[in-house]
Structures are given as structure tokens and as C-alpha cells.
Amino acid sequence: MRLLDDEALERSSVVANNAMNRERGLDGVNSYARDLGLHPLDRLRPRLADHGAAAWLDLCCGQGRALAEAAGQAPDGLEIVGVDLVDHFDSRASALDGLTLVTASVAQWRPDRAFDLITCVHGLHYVGDKLGVLARALTWLSPGGTFAAHLDLASIQLADGTPATRLVRRLLREAGVAYDARRRVVTRTGPTVLDLPLEYAGADDQAGPNYTGQPAVDSYYRPLRTGTRPDPVPPPRRSVVVDDRGVHVVHGDAVVEPIPWEDVHYATVSRFVVEIAGVDHLELTIDLVYGHYVTVLDSDEGFGAAVAEFARRSGRPAPDLSCLDAGHDGVELWRQQF
Ligand SMILES: C[S@@+](CC[C@H](N)C(=O)[O-])C[C@H]1O[C@@H](n2cnc3c(N)ncnc32)[C@H](O)[C@@H]1O
User: Is the pLDDT of residue 66 over 70?
Assistant: First the structure.
């Protein structure tokens, strides 16, 4: 496959696409508050009250409508910066104090200050090096600042075509960056250095529609092996039980409260393969309604029984675990009906 560099990608009709929704407002039906699951002004007002000043950076801001609405409503002291590749900004924006809209690519643009809130609403879908932008933006947060950006992990692949969804989700979690799989939103409080063992290889603008229904860009990365592989250490003994009270995951002899059924969003079983790291195992992933998830490995006691019990509770046949491909989403076993 021919992978595009940033220059070619930014000329692509998928990125310069008129059908894109660039008009989200601050709140309401088609809005930042709704899609991110947080209201930007709720994050900024306490900062304004405490420090008399606050700053919001919105990457891939589209027309900047949400920013113009915030600038119109917020008390003095709020500075807002929006960045978009396309110079097609809301006509109200230029007259509003404290709002600066910049025409630039987030692949190159760098700020000269820190921000209390950084957002990117449905913007990374069109960016090549999504993880590079994410890593840079996380260093621009002020202490205690909030980061929230849509990121579709299904659009991240290893250079050999292996889906990197689970690998990236795990690496983010280990780096202290949360991922809400239901909203597909990455969040973080406070700045951090995100140093992932992945090197950007290029983008594919022919990947087709993503979960939003719009054609989007897939991003390819080469895994970097750093250091030497450690001697195998026996994993900590864990066991899992699924019963009427919920899901019990026990580490060693620890006694833990079960995860109640009302907190379980859905459960999937999948095969996780990272050839370069010698990893090949089955995983039961239990996504919780508040965005966290729990992973149980096939080496954990009770794995097969837990998979079968989830399937039984949704009236589905237990999957044939010997036939699972290393696909990114796995086989759904159970889902809560809201
Ligand atoms: C779906 S729109 C979302 C716009 C806005 N956040 C909203 O929700 O209304 C995606 C935006 O990303 C912008 N974009 C795509 N690639 C970009 C890049 N490399 N740098 C900056 N903006 C980019 C597009 O021009 C477009 O305005």
C-alpha cells in the first residue's frame, strides 16, 4: 500500500472534504459538550475563578463556532486558541476578544504557552501522525489541565497491516492516558510525556468511512523494539469468576469487591498478537460503563468458564476460542441493554 506523507495527506480530498461537520457548537445537539462528554466551560470556569485567567486550545477547530460561543459567554480572562488546516472560520470570530484562530496544520503548529484545556473534536480522524499530535499536545497542558480528544483506535495499524487497537489502548493506559472506548475519547489530567515505542510510517486516505460514517485516514506505525526482552517472569496469579453478583477478578490472595452488573458495559474475547514482542494470547476484555476496562488473560484461572458464562447470559453460543483471528475488535460475548 502507498502511504502518504503529511503534505500529500493535507491535499487529499478526504482531508479537504466539504461534507465534514465543522460546525459543532459549544453545547446542544451538535456540540463539543455532547460529543466529548464534558462541557469546556465547566473545566475553565473554576480556573478562571481561582487564577483570574484560563486558556483553551482547540486543535482541528473547524469553523470555530464552539470557540466563538465560549468567547461570547465566558468572563474576562479566558484566552482561546483554535487551529485548523482550513481557513473557513465563523464570521463572528474576528470581533471577539480573547479568541485567536490560526490556519495551520497540527502536524507542524506549536504553541508558545500552556493551556488549561486542550480539545480535539473529531479532528485526529484526518491527521496522519495521530499519536505524535497526541504526544505533543499532552506536553502543552498546564498542571491539572484537562485534555480530551476523539481518537478512533481502529484507525491505527502497524506497518505490516496488523491492527494496533489493543496495543495502543494498552500502551496509553500504561502511560496514564485514559481511553473511553464508548465515546472513543482520550482524556488526561495534567501534562505528561507520552513516549510510545511506535514510529510513524505514513497515512492511508483510502481507508473508507470510520465510525462517524465519514471517510477518514488510517495511520501506520512501525513498532520500535527498545532494550532487550526480559527473562520470562511468571505472571501474578489471577482468577476470574462471573456470577449473579457481577465479575470478580482476584489478584493472588486479595479479596476484592465484584464489579456489579450495572457497571459492566460489554465483554469481548479476542486474540492479541504482537509478533515483534513475542506476544500471542487470548484476552477477555470487560468494558465498564465509565470508560475503564479490565483485561483477563487465557493464562488466568477461570478464563474459559468466564467466557462461556458471559455468552450464556446473553443467549449466544460460546465462541470457538481456537479459531479467533488477531482482529482488533474480537467477538462480543455480552452487552448491557441501556
Ligand atoms: C470533522 S471536522 C471537526 C471540526 C470541529 N472540531 C467541529 O467539531 O466542529 C475536522 C477538522 O479537522 C481539520 N483538519 C484536518 N487535518 C488537519 C490538520 N492536519 N491540521 C489542522 N486541522 C486539520 C479539518 O480541516 C476539519 O475542519
Answer: yes
| C-alpha of residue 73 to centroid of ligand 1, in Å | 23
- 1 by DSSP, 3-state: which? coil
The model's pLDDT over 263-304, given as tens digits with 9 standing for 90+, comes to 999 999 998 877 766 678 899 999 888 778 888 999 899 999
Q: Closest ligand 1 atom, CA of 120? A: 6
Output b/e per residue, 14-44; b: 16+ Cβ within 10 A.
Answer: bbeeeebebebbbbeeebbbebbebbbbebb
pLDDT, tens digit, 9 for 90 and up, residues 135-183: 999 999 999 999 999 999 999 999 988 889 888 998 998 899 999 988 9
Find, among 269, 266, 294, the residue nearest to 282 by Cα.
269
Q: Indicate the top mutation candidate among 85, 183, 210, 212 to test ligand 1's pocket, ranked by most ligand atoms within 8 A of CB.
A: 85
Gap between the Cα atoms of 118 and 40, Å rounded: 9
Give CA–CA dist 307/117, Å, rounded. Answer: 40
Please tell me the least confidently modeled range out of 5-14, 198-207, 271-280: 271-280
Q: Report the nearest atom of ligand 1 relative to the CA of 35.
A: 8
Q: How many helices (H) and strands (E) does the chain have?
A: 7, 17
Calculate mean pLDDT across residues 329-335: 89
Structural domains in the chain, CATH included, are 6-223 (3.40.50.150), 238-335 (no CATH)
- Residue to substitute in 17, 106, 126, 133 for testing ligand 1 pocket (most ligand atoms within 8 angstroms of CB): 126
